[in-house]
Amino acid sequence: MAGAGVTTTGSPCGACKFLRRRCAAECVFAPYFCAEDGASQFAAIHKVFGASNAAKLLQQQQVVALQAQVAHARTQAQLGAATAMHPLLQQQLQQQAWQVAAAADQHDHQSMTSTQSSSGCYSGAHQRSDGSSLHGAEMYCGYGEQEEGSY
């Protein structure tokens, strides 16, 4: 992990390459993030901790390796959690779509029955309370007592 820092060709260290800035001779990141593969390591650290916090922590050399491992583990865990949640969220979305469809059907059914019952009239093939049914053009409007054969 400890790289050459600023190379003889003048290429920036991995951190400065990631931050797109000139790498000064006194760059705090240069000893830890080489020009070749340091940018990817610094990217993970920068994403989790930020450049300023990383610079403060670099004062302790032992922390660098652990910091990179923790940053990598955190980003992988976030990606894994999001990927694992996708099927669950799809299932919940499907269940909610079914609930909406069922509620819409129930609402339509209740609208039709409340429209028919609010007028007190019904027509067509409906069943009476005794099990027999009314057919065709027979109609009953519930104004008063219903007598046998009066519909």
TrEMBL record:
One of its GO terms (biological process) is hormone-mediated signaling pathway. InterPro entries: LOB. Pfam families: LOB. Residues 111-121 have a biased composition (Polar residues). Residues 104-132 are annotated as: Disordered. GO terms for cellular component: nucleus. Belongs to the LOB domain-containing protein family. This is Uncharacterized protein. It comes from Aegilops tauschii (Tausch's goatgrass). The lineage of its organism: Eukaryota, Viridiplantae, Streptophyta, Embryophyta, Tracheophyta.
